[in-house]
Amino acid sequence: MSSNRVIGILKKFINTLAILIIAGIAGFALLLGAFMIPGQYAQENVGKSINTIKEQGRYPNLVPWTFSMLDTYTDSVMLLSAMYEGDERLQDKALMDYKYENINMEPEFSIVSYFEDGKQDMEVTSYAKYWHGYIVFLRPLLSFMTYDAIRIVNTIVQILLCGWIVWLLYKKSLKKFIVPFVLSVVTLTPIAIGWCLQFSAVYYITLIGCIIILLNSDRWKDTDKYIYFFLITGICTSYLDLLTFPLVTYGIPMVMAILTDKNDSVSKTWKKCIQYLIYWGIGYVGMWAMKWGISSIAASGFNMGDVIYSLLYRSAGSTDEGIKCSYIMVLIRNAGVFALNPVIIIIFAYIVFNIKKIYKNKSMKIFWNYVKMYAVPLLLPLVWYLGTRNHSYIHCEFTYREWAMTAFAGLFALTCTLVDINPENEKDKYVALEKDKTNG
């Protein structure tokens, strides 16, 4: 190994460690700042939305003819956390995720009881294994907006971000990928995401990640910028998400990175995909480790044993009721929910129609080369479900969205083939796959 390569590896290690430490300190500081805002304003605005929580129930389906389930249970947890006002030390409130709950009630009933009956039957509970970084945004927003108003703003902002991506695809002469992008996004059921705080963090990180890649792909090609981008993406996911469908924040931006890195060979693409996935994982796991480390030092009552138990439980092969979560059953449950989206019929028709066109053009070899190029995000849900069997079995109502990576990768591979066999101009062709004839 040459001295320059050793220096390069050492530099990446130091930069990665520095980014993680800075992110951990910054995340802690932001939570401290959020809890400096008086909680009474958030409580007033949450109280104005109690009828909404009562009427919609725990897991309402937003659109009757499709699977568009909301998660009032977890949204209530988030609201209780964001509006908490207690006498604990500031650093404890920032790290321990205190909230008032009636331990004999589910959160959506606890929050109603808090406003209708007062705190006399409430206890202060804690859920400290996560960062709960969403509080940095939610507590200030609740200081001047109701839960209902936040949902409306949430939906509008998400639509605008999707529109921005469509515009960037058009601007970068990738307009043939607009329809596959829209179809793939719909598999995430964005109408439910906009109306649910629990699902929004991953969606925002994913959309903003795609925008950043589309804006910077030409300058970032063959540089280390992508490494640090995916590192920071993993950090943000760990900070904001409550273990919903986190790997989407890697998979979908990775599809965009493959798309914009024209003329890379399959083998080079695989190498980049694995490298970026490792850095995303370092960011994701490393930021969680920063939370536990800072909490162990600065917070009163933090129990690392609870964290270890939770990690083992979430990866276990059975539920509390003793139901065996076999890998096949996990895949079937998640694929079954994913298939309940009517857009799957449109996607299936789109794939069949275009596969026939590719076959008639005798271009199936080109298509399979593109499938290989997108193989990492295409197959990644299979790995995720294997490592999170318990969690993905119990919560298939939202973990099914990991399959969106497969939809994105498959549709983009198909569209790349269509562009190659019928380009509007020669520069649009992705002809570099021929490089892999000798090395597979």
Structure explained in plain terms:
Helix content is 69%, strand content 2%. By secondary structure, it is an all-alpha fold. It has a domain at 23-141. Strands 1-2 form a two-stranded antiparallel sheet. The longest helix has 33 residues, at 3-35. The radius of gyration is 23 Å and the shape is globular. The model is unreliable at 431-440 (pLDDT under 50).
Number of helices: 22
Largest sheet: 2 strands, antiparallel
What are the low-pLDDT stretches, counting only 5+ consecutive residues below 50? 431-440
Q: Could you give the order of strands across the largest sheet?
A: 1-2
Radius of gyration from CA coordinates:
23 Å
* Ends distance: 26 Å
The portion of residues forming beta strands comes to under 5%
> What's the total number of strands?
2
Shape: globular
Derived structural class: mainly alpha
Order of helices and strands: HHHHHEHEHHHHHHHHHHHHHHHH
> Can you give the helix content as a percent range?
55-70%
pLDDT averaged over residues:
90
Brief digest:
This protein is an all-alpha fold.
List the helices and strands and how they pair.
Elements: H1 3-35, H2 39-47, H3 50-56, H4 72-82, H5 90-96, E1 98-101, H6 107-117, E2 123-126, H7 135-142, H8 147-171, H9 178-186, H10 190-194, H11 197-220, H12 225-240, H13 248-260, H14 266-298, H15 304-314, H16 327-338, H17 343-360, H18 364-373, H19 375-387, H20 389-394, H21 396-399, H22 404-421
Antiparallel strand pairs: 1-2
Helix pairs in contact: 1-5, 1-7, 1-12, 1-14, 2-7, 3-6, 4-6, 4-7, 5-14, 8-11, 9-22, 11-12, 11-13, 12-14, 13-19, 13-22, 14-18, 17-22, 18-22, 19-22
